[in-house]
Design a protein that fits this description.
Its main location: cytoplasm. One of its GO terms (biological process) is tRNA threonylcarbamoyladenosine modification. It comes from Marinobacter antarcticus. The strands form 2 sheets. The chain has a 5-stranded mixed β-sheet, with helices on both faces. The chain is about 25% helix and about 30% strand. It has 2 domains: about 1-95 and about 190-215, Nucleotidyltransferase, domain 5; about 95-185, Nucleotidyltransferase, domain 5 (2-Layer Sandwich). Helix 3 (about 95-105) packs across helix 5. By secondary structure, it is α/β, with parallel strands linked by helices. It starts with a strand and ends in a 28-residue tail after the last helix. It is globular, with a radius of gyration of 17 Å.
Length: about 230
């Protein structure tokens, strides 16, 4: 299987190519460089593996939640490629990608929980609780956005780990949530290599969709936009 995965949902910009189980990735921290970097990353990955776009079997992207502008960039690129190449797309939660990263890097033991938090701006967090099931994150409950003071852990898990830059607001979280964390890694952000790993599993489960159904996930029902001078 040959799958191309993209992520621009945070300050990181990355593309990854999964080729018969091996993953190759280009990654760079570039908060305002996603549009400039993404296509060159894709071209470089394909060239290094001696592949052309028509050799791909599927596409994947981190669909959010995350940066509104960033999520739209990956969505637009993956839709354009999918239409042009007549390929299906696997959408992967940005929170889920970081949960997989925590499983691999902390590491997180089988059956332990991962509470993932992203800074959602406007004094809120994107929040999702996952459990390590055979090396893959399983969502517990629903992903949501809320103030740090209203985050909560799901039942059924006794040991918890925190992941994501939203844990920088740990002092504003309920004491019973913060106190239950065995470890917290605030440095983890979404990466296309984790998107690719999860997308391959979802693709084999029949969860790929046509290009027009590859949509961003914002979590928020309503968003107030404020345009600041000199800001995009």
């Amino acid at each position: 299987m040959k799958l191309l995965a993209l992520d621009t949902s945070s300050e990181g910009c990355s593309a990854a190519l999964l080729v018969d189980g091996d993953v190759f990735e280009k990654f760079e921290i570039a908060p305002r460089g996603h549009t400039r970097l993404l296509m060159p990353m894709i071209r470089a990955l394909l060239a290094e593996q001696g592949l052309k776009p028509m050799h791909l079997d599927a596409l994947a992207f981190a669909c959010g939640p995350g940066s509104f502008t960033g999520v739209r960039i990956a969505t637009g690129v993956v839709q354009g490629l999918a239409w042009g190449l007549d390929l299906s797309v696997v959408a992967v939660s940005s929170l889920e990608t970081v949960a997989l990263g925590a499983i691999e890097t902390l590491p997180v033991a089988e059956g332990e929980g991962i509470a993932v938090a992203f800074d959602a701006r406007m004094s809120e967090l994107y929040w999702g609780c996952f459990c390590n099931r055979s090396g893959l994150p399983e969502l517990l409950g629903e992903e949501r956005v809320c103030p740090p003071s209203r985050v909560a852990l799901e039942s059924g898990v006794t040991r918890w780990n925190g992941a994501g830059q939203g844990w920088g607001f740990r002092n504003e979280m309920p004491g019973d949530v913060s106190a239950r964390m065995d470890r917290v890694d605030e440095t983890l952000i979404p990466r296309a290599s984790w998107v690719a790993r999860l997308a391959a599993v979802k693709f084999n489960l029949g969860l790929a969709v046509p290009a027009e159904q590859a949509q961003p996930v914002y979590v928020r029902d309503e968003v107030s936009w404020k345009k600041l001078p000199g800001r995009e």
